Amino acid sequence: MRHTSFHRVLVEYGYAAAATGNAVLIARIRRGRSAQLLRVPFSIAAPEEWAERAAAYAALQVLIEALRSFGRTNGKIAVPDPELLDDLREHRALPAILHRPYIHLVCSLRTMPGLELDAGGGGDLSELARAELSRIAA
């Protein structure tokens, strides 16, 4: 049996999405004194007025899936979008276009009960993600 306290991580992340639907997540995963950067491309399909909200849900869902694949099931994720946290905690009504990404995110979260979500930074990582999308588009 694994002793999960040795595997507790702190994750900060940022993301960016282009009008084309292409998006990228960049996360900093810290465990003890070590840290690594993770880059995961993903895509979204949402009308422009809801693209940012859809990207927020998709980025966190992609991050959770990546953590699971690396066996990192216990820790804290610093979520850079306080509105996303409010959506999850308050079960707020959402427009129909966001139902699918929201449900996918909630399902991913339920498979990882050892993860805590908290408000946090990640602005530098979002800047890095935006720069990467700009470089790809050029």
Question: Which key phrases capture this entry?
Answer:
138 residues, alpha/beta, five-stranded mixed β-sheet, 4 helices, 40% helix
Number of strands: 5
Assign the structural class, choosing from mainly alpha, mainly beta, alpha/beta, alpha+beta, or little secondary structure. Answer: alpha/beta
Per DSSP, the total helix count is: 4
Estimate the mean pLDDT confidence: 90
The stretches of 5 or more residues where confidence is low (pLDDT under 50) are 1-5
In which order are the strands of the major sheet placed? 3-2-1-4-5
Order of helices and strands: EEEHEHHEH
Strand content: 25-35%
Helix content: 25-40%
Describe this structure in words.
Strands 3-2-1-4-5 form a five-stranded mixed sheet, sandwiched between helices. Mean pLDDT is 90; it is low at 1-5. The longest helix is centred in the middle third of the chain and has 19 residues, at 51-69. It is globular, with a radius of gyration of 15 Å. The protein has four helices and five strands; from the N terminus they run βββαβααβα. The protein has helices spanning 51-69, 82-90, 99-110, 123-137; strands spanning 9-17, 22-31, 34-43, 75-79, 115-119. The protein has 138 residues and is α/β, with parallel strands linked by helices.
